[in-house]
TrEMBL record:
The keyword Methyltransferase applies. S-adenosyl-L-methionine binds at Q236, Y265, E286, D326. PROSITE patterns: SAM_MT_RNA_M5U (PS51687), TRAM (PS50926), TRMA_2 (PS01231). It holds the Pfam family TRAM. Belongs to the class I-like SAM-binding methyltransferase superfamily. RNA M5U methyltransferase family. The keyword Transmembrane does not apply. The active site is at C353. Keywords: Methyltransferase, S-adenosyl-L-methionine, Transferase. Residues 14-74 form the TRAM domain. It comes from Brooklawnia cerclae. This is tRNA/tmRNA/rRNA uracil-C5-methylase (TrmA/RlmC/RlmD family).
Length: 400
């Protein structure tokens, strides 16, 4: 028994959530905004660290047997890319992953993530450059659509992976458009979820979906067209996003007058409008009925179907010259990809907000005979790990 007590006395103390451990050396960036490190042989995904740094970490989640989550606690050897976060609640609020990183270095990290996902999941090996777009001030002041929590006389943001309210600092959220930053403080006596939308046509404020100020349907502009969109509906949140994505899609597709284009997950008709203006005959599909009604008004020259894409494919034309896909974060998935391939399009534009889903779908395209012709990546979400990509696919050239 004495030997057992001695053995137990020399064992390292168990690491529990909230404990500080390390120091450890931080490894590469991973999808999701974390860096990969190892603690006593176990994989730990560390937030608010940078590759190459030496840090101690505070363990935040030990619920997974194969890996843990942690936050950087003390930075012992900082990266030259590290800066002081401009917001006092950065690292506590769940909205920002990269405020501690120089903006140009953030784009380098995102490029690394896209390249790694393409390589690992699709077998595609290429360098990636992340492009900046006009409309933010050094990574701040770009977000046109914001959600806040109201409770107990306070207004704030959600903590990371939590519904806990993190009170806003006095200046408001620095990612929000300046026109709407003060609005949340006028609602501290209320409860629920507050949305502040700064559209091209003005500001709308909603609480739990009810319009408190402004209009329920707002106007946005892109590539010379006006689009009606519900204030609480989907529109890109970066003011430069819609123009950047339309330009990338159209440059990649190279539409010709008279061609037939199919726009899948078309929303209120952003890409359909650009394709019509290029002389194409356009058919769009969107599951959100309200968005389709707006699309029909925004782009009356096109035809639109309401329904989930995977359930609506049979109602579409059997052939198309061009296809645009702008699927949700989960991607288009194999059944939709295979149907799209069967349309025989000469060019396909895939707009992706998740690099892992993009890579999986590109692998399916490759299996079905389409190859990646070009890829552009855009920093539409500065200070966060999120990134948008536009992939152009063409039929693979078969060797004789």
């Amino acid at each position: 028994m004495g030997t057992d007590r001695q053995a137990r006395a020399t064992e390292p103390p168990a690491i529990v959530e909230g404990a500080v451990a390390g120091p450890i050396e931080v490894g590469p960036i991973a999808h999701g905004g974390h860096c990969v490190a190892r603690l006593d042989g176990r994989v730990v995904f560390v937030r608010h660290a940078l590759p190459g740094e030496t840090v101690t970490v505070r363990i935040t989640d030990t619920s997974h047997e194969r890996f843990w989550w942690a936050d950087a606690a003390t930075v012992i050897a900082p990266s030259p890319d590290r800066v002081s976060p401009p917001c006092p609640i950065a690292g506590v609020c769940g909205g920002c992953d990269f405020q501690h990183v120089r903006v140009d270095a953030q784009r380098g990290l995102k490029a690394d993530v896209v390249a790694e996902q393409l390589s690992r999941l699709a077998g595609i090996h290429r360098s990636v450059t992340v492009e900046a777009v006009p409309g933010d001030d050094g990574g701040l002041g770009w977000r046109t659509r914001m959600r806040y929590l109201l409770a107990d006389g306070r207004v704030g943001m959600r903590a990371w992976r939590s519904g806990r309210l993190v009170p806003l600092p006095d200046g408001g959220c620095l990612l929000a458009r300046p026109e709407g930053r003060d609005e949340p403080f006028a609602h501290t006596s209320e409860t629920g979820e507050l949305q502040v939308v700064v559209a091209s046509s003005g500001m709308t404020v909603l609480r739990d979906g009810e319009v408190l100020a402004g209009k329920a349907v707002v106007e946005e502009r892109a590539s010379g067209r006006a689009y009606k969109v519900r204030a609480d509906g989907f529109w890109q949140v970066h003011p430069g996003a819609a123009d950047a994505l339309v330009e990338a899609v159209m440059a990649g597709l190279r539409p010709e007058t008279g061609e037939h284009a199919i726009d899948l997950y078309c929303g209120v008709g952003l890409f359909a409008g650009a394709l019509v203006d290029a002389g194409c005959r356009v058919t769009g599909v969107e599951s959100d009925r309200a968005a389709v009604e707006l699309a029909r008004g925004n782009v009356p020259e096109a035809r639109f179907h309401t329904g989930r894409v995977e359930r609506t494919l049979g109602r579409l034309p059997r052939r198309a010259d061009l296809v645009v896909l702008d699927p949700p974060r989960t991607g288009a998935r194999a059944a939709v990809v295979r149907h799209v391939v069967g349309l025989g399009a000469r060019r396909i534009a895939y707009v992706a907000c998740d690099p892992a889903a993009l890579a999986r779908d590109l692998a399916t395209f490759a299996d079905e005979g389409y190859e990646l012709a070009s890829l552009r990546a855009f920093d539409l979400f500065p200070m966060t790990h999120h990134i948008e990509c536009v992939a152009i696919l063409t039929p693979a050239v078969r060797e004789s």
